[in-house]
Specification:
Elements lengths: L1 H13 L5 H9 L20 E4 L2 E3 L2 H11 L6 E5 L5 H9 L2 E6 L2 H13 L5 E5 L12 E6 L8 H5 L1 E12 L4 E9 L2 E10 L14
Parallel strand pairs: 3-4, 3-6, 4-5, 6-7
Antiparallel strand pairs: 1-2, 7-8, 8-9
Helix pairs in contact: 1-2, 2-4
The protein binds S-adenosyl-L-homocysteine.
């Protein structure tokens, strides 16, 4: 499995990922431990995979692009919306000081909790609920990573972004979105488009409502 993981890191490098901390996080994290046994043989291919409950673990190169855009230095408090399998949560745990992650589906929440514990990281806090309203108790966050696609950038999340903070969020229709980088400097909020993507829907009060 270590050989397969190395090959995945090589693939990410070939696809243009340069941030060494990001590549090292992929090297440290066993993706096969986060996917159902039926698809485990494809765990180190650069493809999205089903994780149950109609949800998917993203393509590793999409995770890598998002993580690289956040430019984490290691001291940050990060909020993740959509824990899903918990794989990206663990990547973040290797790249930042403290990770706060929210998932709305109980079965995935419980499986992610076990997988994160098994991965041996201890700087992750988890919440079951609607992540579109953020997690006020621990705000502000230097980085926010949204793992599901919404119709717009959730305002509650912009408000929980620290001065100098960055957020990655897929925005668009239910079928296709653009990965958007939101940066906050004082009261100034700027956005930049990173890449076209396809994510599962962000369901919640500041996402796709009642679906
Ligand atoms: N980063 C994840 C990807 C999971 S797919 C991984 O590495 O596996 C996106 C996840 O977002 C799904 O598990 C879905 O249930 C969750 N989700 C969608 N809307 C949400 C919301 N409002 N709050 C929290 N989680 C949400």
């Amino acid at each position: 499995m270590v050989g397969a993981r190395r090959r995945l890191v090589e693939t990410l490098r070939e696809k243009g990922i340069r941030d060494l901390a990001v590549l090292r996080a992929f090297d440290m994290t066993a993706r096969h431990a986060f996917v159902p046994t039926g698809v485990r043989h494809r765990a180190y291919d650069d493809v999205p995979l089903p994780i149950g409950n109609g949800q998917t673990i993203s393509q590793p190169s999409v995770h890598a692009k998002s993580l690289e855009a956040l430019a984490l230095k290691g001291h940050e408090r990060v909020l993740e919306i959509g824990s899903g399998s918990g794989y990206q949560t663990v990547l973040l745990a290797h790249l930042a000081a403290q990770v706060f992650t929210i998932e709305r589906i109980p079965a995935l929440f419980n499986a992610a909790r076990e997988a994160i514990k098994a991965a041996g990281v201890t700087n992750v806090s988890m919440l079951l609920g609607d992540g579109t309203v953020g997690w006020r108790e621990f705000a502000p966050y230097e980085a926010i990573l949204v793992s599901a696609g919404g119709p717009s950038v959730p305002q509650a999340l912009v408000e929980q972004l620290a001065d100098g903070g960055r957020m990655i969020v897929p925005v668009g229709t239910l079928e296709e979105q653009t990965l958007v980088l939101v940066s906050r400097k004082g009261d100034q909020v700027t956005t930049r488009e990173i890449a076209p993507v396809r994510f599962v829907p962000l369901l919640g009060t500041q996402g796709w409502e009642g679906q």
